[in-house]
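Per reviewer request, we include the raw input and output of the structure prediction for the construct analysed in the revised manuscript.
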Amino acid sequence: MYNSENRIAKVIAFIPALNEEEALEHVISNMKETYADSQTRGWKLEVIVVDDGSTDKTREIAEKFADRVVVHPINMGLGAATRTGMQAAYDMGADIAFKMDADYQHDPFDVEKCITPILKDEADIVWGSRFAGSINYKMPTHRHYGNLFFSWLMRKLTYPNITDAQTGLMCFDRKYLAKFKIIANYNPPQQLLIDAHGKNMRYAEVPVEFHKRTTGKSFVSFKYPFKVLPAMLRILIYANPLRVFVPFGFIFIAIAMVIMVYDFFQYFAGASESTSEHPVTVMLLFTFGIQSVMFGLLADLIIRRSE
């Protein structure tokens, strides 16, 4: 796609960073060195750092080694930093943008594998999968099973071939950069999967290596699911309200029907004097169910007209 007619694709790496002074210079320098000759393969790399309210020397290092630095005056969260990085990449004219973590757990050599499906016009978003590739350390048990759970959940909600819904290495083409939506300031991978799926973006993933963090501190804790799940519900409602409200409405309508059938059965069996022993309950369930369906239809209409 981008290599036709000798066109050089503009590829922008954006690195969200919070107090990553120990590893940031190495990440940027290694990535630039690895792809110093990328123009011979049809693309050119630039690097953005999003300093998400760091209190150490992260900003100073970023200004020295990155091509551009965007600063959040206070810590806003990884979702907010990812949103800022994607928007900055789009504003800078990126054909492709990819997120790289600042802790050097992802290998810069995997970047080209991730952007290749987009360069070939085979995908609009690409996830670097640690589970399809290799994890070169023993991941903590709660993180391992948490990753498996969220990957399973994303397969049910979005793309059926997802093996790693929590990756830190994600790539996007310009078409998606122009219309992406990150609502919450947390868990960007799942939000972007739901959003991209709702916008009919093509998904691909490639196997990547993942190394143990040796600097800084991971943001993932036991509280993570309690922050992620509400945010996922919000983006799912925004991306595809029909998928949320229509099944929800039909569940209540079905419950009302079951109660009605039960009341009729009880009447004809002689166990009740009326065909409708629970009229208020049935009416409320029917009303709530129909309202849910109509709300989903209305929300979908509003969202589609605003796009």
